[in-house]
């Protein structure tokens, strides 16, 4: 079964040669998990059991959200998120357009 990114509108797939890394919700840190839920526009009352199954691909994080290798250290095989990383919020494009162009 091929996993896809659960970020709204994203169709990235977790396949062998994918340039994306896929990340689980931080369910053990309730405050951080709520930030992820809000960023993706998921209802705040969604059960943790369902949230545990969701994944977000690396396209929705900035480069600063990932751990970097130190000089002299081998390149990491997969990108690892910092503990404080939160996906970029899902923006309602219609509302954003109205705020920018109709103001």
UniProtKB/TrEMBL annotation:
A biological process from GO: endothelial cell proliferation
Occurrences of domain THAP-type (ranges): 1-90
InterPro entries: THAP1/10, THAP_Znf, THAP_Znf_sf
GO cellular component assignments: nucleoplasm
Subcellular location as annotated: Nucleus, Nucleoplasm
Coiled coil: none
One MF annotation (Gene Ontology) recorded for this entry: DNA-binding transcription factor activity
Entry's family note: Belongs to the THAP1 family.
Primary role: DNA-binding transcription regulator that regulates endothelial cell proliferation and G1/S cell-cycle progression. Specifically binds the 5'-[AT]NTNN[GT]GGCA[AGT]-3' core DNA sequence and acts by modulating expression of pRB-E2F cell-cycle target genes.
PANTHER family: THAP DOMAIN-CONTAINING, THAP DOMAIN-CONTAINING PROTEIN 1
Protein name: THAP domain-containing protein 1
Organism of this sequence: Astyanax mexicanus
Source taxonomy: Eukaryota, Metazoa, Chordata, Craniata, Vertebrata
